[in-house]
Structure formats: C-alpha cells, structure tokens
Amino acid sequence: NHRLWRAAQDHPFVHALADGSLDRDRFVHYLKQDFAYLQAYARAISIAAAKAPGLTLMAEFSGLAHETLNTEMQLHRDYCSGFDITEEQLEAVEASPVCRAYGDFCIATASIGGCAELLAGLIPCGVGYAETAMRLKQGLAATEHPYRRWIETYAGPEYLSYAGWMISAFDALAQDAPHAAARRLDALFVLGCRYEWLFWEMAWTGDSWPDLQSTEGIPT
Prior knowledge:
The chain has 220 residues and is mostly helical. The chain has one domain (16-202): Heme Oxygenase, Chain A (Up-down Bundle), CATH 1.20.910.10. The chain is 76% helix and 0% strand. The longest helix has 28 residues, at 24-51.
C-alpha cells in the first residue's frame, strides 16, 4: 500500500507542478476535471451524511458537503478565472473517462457501504493532497511560481485540518472493524490510491473521451 501511496505523489505531473515547469494546458485540463470530480465528491459526502451512525458524524459530513458546494467550488471557480477558464466552461466540462470512473467509485462506495468505506476510498485524495502540498511548499523558492497559490492552498491550515479530520474520523469508525470488514476497507484504500495515480496521469496526458461523432477511424 505504501508503494501505491507514493506512486501518486511521485507522478511526473506532481514533479512538474513542484518546480513550476508544468505546461499550462495540462494544468488547465486538470483544473477542469477537478471541478467535475468535486461534484461527484459532494454527492458521495451527502450520501455518507445520510448514513452516518451518529448525529455528530452526520453534522460533520453534512457540513463538509455544504462547504464543498458553497465554498470550495466557488474558490475553484475564482482560481480558474486566473487561468482564463470561465464559469460557463467549468459548468460545461464533461468528466473524462478516468474522472467519471473515479467519481462513480466514490458515489458507489458511499451508497453500498457507509462512512468508513467512503473515507477509506477518499483518504488517498484528501490526505494525499495535504502530504504532497506540504512537501511541495518546502521546496518553493522565494521567486515567482506559477502554481504557488495551488500549493499553498492545500498546504494551508484549513485543508490540513480537513485532512486530519479524515484520519481521526476513519480511525474511530474502523477501530473495531472485524477482519472481513478491515480487508474491505484496505481494498477500497488501494483503489483510491490507484484512482489518484490515474487522475494525475489523465491530467498529464490530456486524456478525454474519443470523438465518436466522426466516422474517421471507426471500423465499418
């Protein structure tokens, strides 16, 4: 599992993001797809809120869904405007195959399982971003960096608090899990790590749906 965890954080996209050499078009593609992912993430969190075993956890998941929809996504819109991405363009983004699969994984995990299962699948994203951003922030030079704001946002106190909550909430939910349930949680964590790597790879390669409106290249 550690190898999978590190693989996502060591992806070429992340290295290029770290030193500022990341191509702008690749980052724009990432930003658009991340907005699409956030919508699925908010749906999954909302489902988990309804299935929370207690009022405290229900309130925490509900608050997170509200924060995602009304604060984080608006901040994302504002940040994207600095890269000439309009709100209309964001709203019209079609999730790539990987983004769609990742979002569906989150929603299905919350629907079939519950809060512990969803957190197991989300920790590679939520906590992984925090660890990655903290490492990248340490390497930031005093000179201008095109992605400094992105790095500092995910290495900031608010996001680190969220990552810490994910870990503590998961630990509380999973501490008494029987062996079979623990194996299921581990499998979901592994899938989350794989999807994180795939998401960076999608952003790096510019992967999207093929244009099947044209008959060119389609066997007859």
